[in-house]
Amino acid sequence: MRDRFGKTQITQKNKPTTFKRNPIRKIMIQCRYDKSETINFELRNQNCEIENVKLEGKYENKQAVNPYMPSWEYVPDAEPHVVGDRVYVYGSHDIFNGLNFCLGDYVCWSAPVDDLGNWRYEGCIYKREQDPAAPRIRLTNGLAAPDMVQGSDGRFYLYYFMGGTKMISVAVCDEPAGKYEFYGYVKYSDGVAIGKKNEPFQFDPGIFMDDDGKLYLYTGFALAGNPILLDGSKPTEHGPMCFELDPSDMLTVLNGPSYIGIAGEKESVGTPYEGHSFL
User: Fold this and answer.
1) How many CA atoms lie within 13 A of 167 on its CB side?
2) What pTM value is reported for the model?
3) How does DSSP classify residue 263?
4) Any idea of the CA torsion for 142, 167, 208, 254, to the nearest 10 degrees?
5) pLDDT at 251 over 90
């Protein structure tokens, strides 16, 4: 047979019968990953047990499978970030059989960068109630998809949106998977939080620090055809927004918002996509 690593050669050797009705037959399998590496192992086909594993060659291949988290864990909207020799995954947090999405507090998982099949639960890193603007009712006002960036001060900043606030919040920690503390709200130079000047509804922030030290915030968008998501807020007409933030405080808008990436329905006039919500 053939696997995703290349050709696999199989030979069968009959072994003495040890059970009258259910004999055991050992299958000798040899997997050739490349010219310098071979894995030999025996498979007992009664219980699918593998034994006598031998790796030949100078490299050891490691394999990860999906889903890579345990079956009881739900972390959608995942954002992976490499810090040192580990990759850390941040995301929203769904609860099994929950009545809505994003009902859990933020958790973090990590794995060595060279072994993405060996994930470790880092625990709860931030609780909804730590945000001073957290609405009393959690069911419709959960913590949505976050993102993380390391600031020039070496600390780690978690940007997130919570239903009911209409703002982009920030938490900070000295470690990538430590206990984050509330830090503030992304704001204009006059101190007014973005989202409080009748801008289109924005959520699910993405944060990026460029090689030149400039810091950019990207926010998701909602169209007029999605009134449940909008929850009375102003829909976008032009797509997602981008803000340049001051890296010295990680909060203050220097430039923006500017619309990027996706043209809205107004821009579709005269194109083959005229009348569509976005291109």
Assistant:
1) 18
2) 0.76
3) -
4) -170
5) yes
